[in-house]
Batch of 2 targets.
Target 1
Amino acid sequence: MASLFVLVLSTCVFASFVWKLFREYLVESPLDRIPGPRPSSWLAGNIPQFYDKTGKYYYQFLREYGSVMRLSGLLGERLLFLHDPKALHHIFVKDQHIYEEAPAFIAINKVFFGEGLLSTLGEQHKKQRKMLNPVFSTGHMPPIFYEVTGRLQKAFMNQVKNGPKEIDMLHWMSRTALELIGQSGMGYSFDSLKEDAQSADLHPYSRSVKRFGGLLSGTGTFVVTSYILPFAANFNYPRLKRWVVEHIPSQWVRDLKEIVDTIQATAVDIYMTKQQAMIEGDDGKKDIISVLVRANASAAEEDRLSDEEVFGQVASLTFAAMDTSSSALSRIICLLGEYQEIQDRLRQELLEAKKANHGEELDYDQITSLPFLDAVVRETLRLHPPLGIAIRTARKDMVLPFSKPIKTTTGASISEIIVPNGTTLFASFYGANANPDIWGDDAHEWKPERWLKPIPEKVAASHIPTIYSNLMTFLGGSRACIGFKFAQLEIKIVLFVLLTSFKFVSGTQKIFWTMPGITAPVIEGDDITHPSLPMFVTALDT
Ligand code: HEM
């Protein structure tokens, strides 16, 4: 019986390939009749020369992801890489309703996180943002942030009280980020942040999310993520779906199922606790989901989210907040380990602010007004965006204009490009944030002090889709990061607490940062599915 289902499933997948190829190659697009240059091959080796002046981002991207790209090209996908500001403005702002989230991503998110912001499109997504935007602007977070970071500080102190020690910063930043979103987002504790907790003691959610990226990357999983998951996400017979999944004889499928189950079970647990608290009249909690549940209960009928949609936000927010913030924090501390003079200057600013505040923790206004802390955070998020790309799919034949002509591999100069319906577009945040045409010749250097001066006129005039400092790090337009203020505050408070107590020095091993997905540090020679960032930590004499 199980093999019959596998056979039916494979036939459906095969039929969908054939239909795709037929649609791409045999059905004429109106754009085919328009004369004009277009890449001779949408895939092949032309990607770096054609779309990337710097080369750096795409070469690494292709090295780590190249086989997936080639396979998707063979299957008839059209892929377009770009970072031109005008083109990006069209994709994420002007014509954002045409350039939608790639179907495979929406499907993966739906399977794993339910009906939250990460997996909805169009009017449903708009409705969810309308309900959630005010919830995020309430800014009650500092006290709980300090409670969590206080535990982190204690855990570090216990480890280094007898002298400097090499500590995996990524491990600790991930645990801290999860506990921060758990406590301030859901009023839920994922991690006690005890220093002696072993991997097996961590919350199952934490272990599951860590395995999620690794299991879903690589050529082997490409067909599943691009074709089977979209099919599964829209197959609305949950019992049958579960039965099929349980009978597929594959360890990989069993692992994925376990991850989905853990993420969903955690979200259910959190959501049910909230509902119960509401019933019992405990409605004073200020975490994001409690505020959302209350706002939803009193919203007009047409604006109200369903239970599935509120529940979907729990898993979506936890996932969206965890690895992004911990990646950003790890990168900043890694750079401060390399640039000791910048670490000293930053520490001095933080210690002076603490002293001026009589040794007390800084409130929201105080911490957000520290100029050098802000400069270090901005510069790191500019040059090293935790998420390197946004992927969109054109839902109509379009023509995409460039701000200045670019050369094709055949040597022709073009100032716009034809984008047929179905083309997948990869927008490079790194390419846009470090574009020398906008940021100047030192665009690729990490220089926090650039933020202490007025930003170049060209930056302000670039019209990059943005909600943060003319950078694409948190994107712009209707799908921009809803947690960008939360993330900045969290990063600043963790840095404040750690740098006023400890000194950080680079570890002995060489580190490189992976690029597709959320960037993560890996020791050179280690498997990229096991990221880590060992650094020497010393307690300060204060
Ligand atoms: C440094 C940390 C962070 C970075 C760099 C970041 C970046 C981004 C980016 C680039 C997107 C758009 C992705 C796309 O559409 O392709 C996004 C979306 C999102 N982020 Fe963040 N994020 C961060 C932290 C957070 C935090 C802390 C939260 C929650 C508290 C959060 C919640 C979300 C949500 C829910 C979305 C989906 C928004 C939508 O589709 O309407 N993020 N983030």
Target 2
Amino acid sequence: MGGLVVKKLQEGHPVLKVNQLAISVLNKGSIHSITEDITFEIHIGETLAIVGESGSGKSITASAIASLLARPLTVTHGQILFQGTNLLEAPARYVKSLRGQAIGCVFQDYRGSFTPFIKVGHQLVEVIRTHAQVTHAEAKKMAMDWLHRVKLPAERSFRSYPYQLSGGQLQRIALAAALMLKPALLVADEPITALDVITGRAIMDLMEDLQREVGCAILLISHDLRQVIKRSHRIAVMQNGRLVETGSRDQIRDDPQHPYTQALLRACPRITRKHGPHIQETGMWR
Ligand SMILES: Nc1ncnc2c1ncn2[C@@H]1O[C@H](COP(=O)(O)OP(=O)(O)OP(=O)(O)O)[C@@H](O)[C@H]1O
């Protein structure tokens, strides 16, 4: 398969390193700071979740990493090092070509991921052929294979328009689209918030299975601490535009240091080991 040549990761280097990132709103010459000093890294095969209150800056941080930040929002300081390259200084064409291939994205608004009047199969084929030098027949085979992997009837889904599919089905297809080119990083911004609990759980299970298969790192954005504790290896807690605490899932759950993290945990007491029975664990991260 052709396409973009991305730097090979050196042993032990993070897939993504965000360094002192600051994002502001520029408005008629004035600057209003939204996030400051955001620093974290994610390694291959790892899931790091950013959790925190509404409006704390989780989504705009994810957008900056996916190079989707739009005016009036702008990065005013820091680095976003993806496989060692600072995306904030890299040529726009290079950064654009990473998205969809080396960096996959899934969002809460799964319908927004699709063009409404084009059949999903055609859209998947287009994504593949934008990034990989394959024939139409090869791209179709790959798309069908991924529809099957996300546990959908491949033929029927391939021929469907987005409006003919449910939210859960569309989010599965969005996940297929984000992972089929085997990205090094998946940015998942509230991927199940718009879905019912059972469908959401199935999507998260699927995401974990595919992560093992593809071997990518995941940046998971969520306001749901319960899901985050079940699904991530490390957790970064955000409040008022700053990361107040970052630690392993166990450390955050069992020994939170910051008063805001402690308050978040108190709000869902059943997940702490110290203060009551925790969620039943059926797998490594469940
Ligand atoms: N286009 C924009 N223009 C101006 N301000 C914005 C824009 N987008 C977001 N903001 C502001 O940036 C802040 C952070 O927003 P963000 O969407 O990242 O929060 P969040 O932590 O993801 O919240 P939620 O969990 O509710 O999605 C908010 O105060 C929001 O009002």
